[in-house]
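Hi support team,

I submitted a single chain yesterday and got back a structure, but I'm not sure I'm reading the token output correctly. Could someone confirm the output below corresponds to the sequence I sent? I've pasted both exactly as they appear in my results page.

Thanks,
R.
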Amino acid sequence: MNSHPDYNIIKSFYRTRYNQWGCSPKSLGWDKGNQSVRFDVLTSHYSFEKKTVLDIGCGFGDLINVLEKKASCFEYTGIDLSDDFVRRATQLHPDCEFFQQDILSFAPQKMFDYAIASGTFNLKLQGVDQYEFIEEVIKKTLQLCTDGFAFDFLSDKVDYRKEETFHYSPERILSIAYKYSRNVMLRNDYMPFEFSLFLSKDDSFEKHDTLFCKYKNEQNL
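Hi R., thanks for writing in. Yes, this is the structure output for that exact sequence:
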């Protein structure tokens, strides 16, 4: 399978929006706003204190502002296909690392604790099967992260779709996730037409009580 879509189409889409809207959530495709809601959800399941975070499709690095409210110390790295976004993000956050890079080709010199992707998979791709692409991204992300990730998606439980967007079946995404861990969570309780997937690599459990070890440690049980 060709796992790399035509990234030039994606770059062109966002460059057109950036030329129109500049440094705005609208340039990232968020015409209706709610970026802060999405970030709040994606950062709700993990503790980022003294953690390293990879932001896949980082845009202008807006996630940093959210992480600063939830952790006093963390290390952030952002990657994005758009050179416009990466250039602007570097100006806004000179103390963080940004790379113009796609996730499947990204070869960092370090591992990350967590990865987050917000709106990264919303566009309809050309030349690839969208679900196979997502599975390739999941596998690559798990190679780069020690703890887990949080991704969001547009849902196919809608009455209206834009021509350029792809809407995912939550059931299919969840089925893919279960191939790589039993410790997964899907949230569809904050917006009717979007959902978020959380996957923790550690799915070990205690046989005597069948509780995930990660959950017991977090809850001090």
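A quick pointer for reading it: The chain has a mean pLDDT of 92. Let us know if anything else looks off.

Best,
Support desk
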